Amino acid sequence: MSGDVAVLGAGMHPWGKWGRSFVEYGRAAARAALADAGLEWGDVRSVVGADTVRGGYPGYVAGATFAQALGWQGARVTSVYAACASGAQAIGAARAQILAGLADVVLVVGADAAPKGFFAPAGGERHDDPDWLRFRVLGATNPTYFGLYARRRMALHGDSLEDFALVKVKNAAAGALNPNARYRKEVTVEEVAASAVVADPLRLLDICATSDGGAALVLSSMEFARARGVVDPVRIRAVSTVTPTYPRTVLDLPDIATDSTVAVAAGAGSFRASIADAAYEEAGLGPTDLSLAEVYDLSTALELQWYEDIGLCGEGEGAKLVREGATALGGRIPVNPSGGLASFGEAVPAQAIAQVCELTWQLRGTAGARQVPGARVGITANQGLFGHGSAVVAVR
Fold it and tell me: What is the band of 1 on the pLDDT scale with cuts at 50, 70, 90?
């Protein structure tokens, strides 16, 4: 049996700081996706919502909230929380329902109104919660970890501050071409270097902001798509949802220590690499098949790490790719042609869905000025707190 499902519609509410309800962003994105699919809300038989985070914790909104906002019509409902990977895992849940024959058409929605500044845990005393502990014990915000990752790359691979800045320059140039991006202004290496230090060695323009936004997809069975005359849709071929393996030897959000290797030796590969590996295996494809990639550039240095984790180059060679322009629009393998989180900022439940929206438009050939010529295969990669890894492979 084919594991493909069709992407009939993609829609977004532009990212920004609009001061409105996340329900409004999700409803707008859903309506845009339905219009793109040429379907009515009443045609949808299941809705899967990626839960809002609201300061680090789920439970503030479910798929039913979006169903109510669109008008109760009795659709099956599912809500998914996997931190930053929530959107990808919502797509995975929708795909599973379609392949299981539970629904022909599924709407996937994610939206959020993020706080200004850094994410932080909700209030209360939770001594068994590693996210709460890292703030209480260390005062370690997300950028603190981003800075540690950057220092690790500088020590192990010789990456420079200019290498990191080149990632921002690349993504800002792409984001300037994207009407859904929050930041649509090109920047220079000098402007990155002149921005304020947030978490040494990273500066303000090395780190993504928090944002408001929404994204939605309409997925269907291949049979439903063909019956409506859509003979060559973008197809989702794989969704990986993996956890780490023991022992973990690289410090990772929100943990404040790594596992010991005294009793069990460290294995080959990393958690992030396993996310893409699982997706490639399921899709029957590999890095050399890719036309483009959308990865979580929470910081500039992290994007370089993803190059290696998704197999675009060997360990320690990520900076070389960005120096050569290989990952820019017009390069050998564009990464984050949408502009990435550098241009959008984090609207946590929506961002992994937004990545697949970008793949959809690129594979259709409708991405406008940021179009990757001849795009046929794309991958998204993202990582959520507490060991949620997800990647999506889309083809046409």
Answer: low
